[in-house]
Amino acid sequence: MSDLRTRLEGSPYQGYSYSYPHKTAYRPLAEPVPLAELWARERKDALYLYLHVPFCGMRCGFCNLFTKARPEGSLVDRYLDALGRQARVVREAIGEASFARMAVGGGTPTFLEAEALDCVLGLAERVMGAGPGRIPISVEASPGTLTAEKLRVLADRGTTRLSLGVESFDEAEARAVNRPQATAEVERALDLIREARIPTLNLDLIYGLPGQSVASWLASLHAALRHRPEELYLYPLYVRPQTTLGRAGRDWDDLRLACYREGRSLLLGEGYAQVSMRMFRSAQAPPEAGPPYRCQEDGMIGLGCGARSYAAGLHYADAYAVRQRGVGAILEGYASRPGAAFGLADHGHRLSEDDRRRRFVIQSLLSGEGLSFSDYSRQFGSELGDDLPEIAELEEAGLATRGPDALRLNERGIERSDVIGPWLYSRKVRTLMEDYEWH
């Protein structure tokens, strides 16, 4: 148990394992793969559609997303034209397919003007066949970009969930991470969202911000709770390469863990259920409708320059960058790409059988549902203990509880999710991530 024990002695925030393998493990493929051939071999009855809008009004100090702050000239229009070309080529390549979920992320999708936002959502419905009333649709937003007109577009296009990146209700804390944001502007945006009657409101908040205390963190949570959001995501502050904070070399581990514990206690007391380390869902939240979808098993189609696509044996995307010069160069290449080029995957990661097993385990274990032994055996035709014997170390370390058919993280294990995820990465993926050349 040496590696797990060593990791547990370090930072609780070693890596957010929302996807495995991470994009820093992607590399140019030796030979481009035609999408029509790739998807002909895949299950396509329950796909996730993700559209990426890589633009923001500002670059936050903690942000390592693929996004361009304050794009100039005709870049946005040229990007949307390319998005339309890509959608048409990809839709033809994948053939008959059904979508179970859809999300529009970024960047900040609501950075777009209302007409452009309608264009993006219209592409999803008109070209991809993912429309209102049939599947859950989630859209990301920031307070300063929201207007009543944009929210009408979202509501008319069937948005069922709006995720608002507030990060903090304290103006000084927001400024400390290069996010000049007036609390009055946040409150105005929240009032507009409630008037638009989008069924589920999610608020993103960050703990561990420079200058933050446990008391000021709880004040932000109480401010959020006044709006009774159906969901809350509580994110620890990550200090990532090439971000403003990363270059400053700052860290706030002790505060983050204290904030997490106090925030968790508050939300549980307010009737929220903890779905994962980050996600809390209100008992009053509407039940999730739409066809069944399991991220461990079902694929994803990504459209846009920063979007990933997941087939069983290949994850692929455009190249990744954080620094604005690198992002700009990649975006220019995307915007000028001819339609036929969108029919090929040329950058990504080929998943070995070991990768596929580890992905299933990580994504199951770090969610509230836990890791089902029977689901694992059904998916891979083998026993979990034979394939990944190290999984038993989680019980030995007091991080998980074994039930009749599932392994679930306990309270201590959930708060160490950002240790357990990276611990389960394969040696090959770890090496690729460590060797990644940041741009």
UniProtKB/TrEMBL annotation:
Gene Ontology molecular functions: 4 iron, 4 sulfur cluster binding; coproporphyrinogen dehydrogenase activity; metal ion binding
Keyword Ribonucleoprotein set for record: no
GO process terms (BP): porphyrin-containing compound biosynthetic process
Alphabetized UniProt keyword annotations: Iron, Iron-sulfur, Metal-binding, Oxidoreductase, S-adenosyl-L-methionine
S-adenosyl-L-methionine keyword on record: yes
SUPFAM superfamilies with a match to the protein in the record: Radical SAM enzymes
InterPro entries the record matches: Aldolase_TIM, Coproporphyrinogen-III_oxidase, Elp3/MiaA/NifB-like_rSAM, HemN_C, rSAM, rSAM_sf
UniProt-listed Enzyme Commission number(s): 1.3.98.3
Cofactor: [4Fe-4S] cluster
Domain (Radical SAM core) ranges: 41-273
Gene3D superfamilies: Aldolase class I (3.20.20.70)
Annotated CDD domains: Radical_SAM (cd01335)
GO-annotated cellular components: cytoplasm
Classification via NCBIfam families: PRK08208.1 (NF006067)
Protein name in UniProt: Oxygen-independent coproporphyrinogen-III oxidase 1
